[in-house]
Fold this protein.
Amino acid sequence: MRYQEILFEKKNGIALLTLNRPDIRNAITGARMIDEIEDACRSVNADGAVKVLIITAADPAFSAGGNIKEMAAKTGMFAGTPAQLMESYRRQVQRIPLAVYGIEAPTIAAVNGPAIGAGCDLALMCDMRVASERAVFGETFICVGLIPGDGGSYFLPRIVGMARACEMTFTGERVDAKKALAIGLVNAVVPHDRLIQEAVALAERIAEKPAQALRMAKRLLYMGQDVSLRSLLEQSAAYQALCHHTEDHMEALAAVFEKRKPEFKGR
């Protein structure tokens, strides 16, 4: 696919997806942008050489979420009867959480500015978040008489706990970068001009590790949120058996014995 709404590149095991519609503050409810995000996510999953994906955006905003002009005019995905609107959500914006949450490699949101509504939820879909000091997070759906229609009520409580999630959802109040760090919404807050550099540095620390083990470790972390301990232990045993027979595992052991840095091949 030729990208028009996003930028997408891969380098040294790290993929970078940049929302590139600053003219509409990177609103993510347009069909073309949804298609492109979904396609980039598929590309990451299909490429075993990609160890980390960073999602960021062109300044000044990370994402304003839904396009409120289209909401007011009831055009685009907001057109039609209630039944048609429900199908629009299912067939359009709800493809984003399924695509991003389904990425097998670790993901980092590099939040460069306001992340509002569905934009906030996009950041929450990632495994980790590094925020610019200019970042602002808002689960603001209630302020326009709506509810989180894109999975925010799934992601937010798992990250900040139910009480904080209720407060953010019921008040619609925005949280600045400093408070986001204090409540565990983000992993780090950094100077704006160092955001991508710091996100890449985190990605590089992860990308040094064995690719197959990274993807299996991620699956287990999320599986552990939804299954019993016994079920998780069964799956862990299966994955561990596979890891013991990878070349990267043997390389890691050799590096320990030889007191050197391992060189992983993703095999």
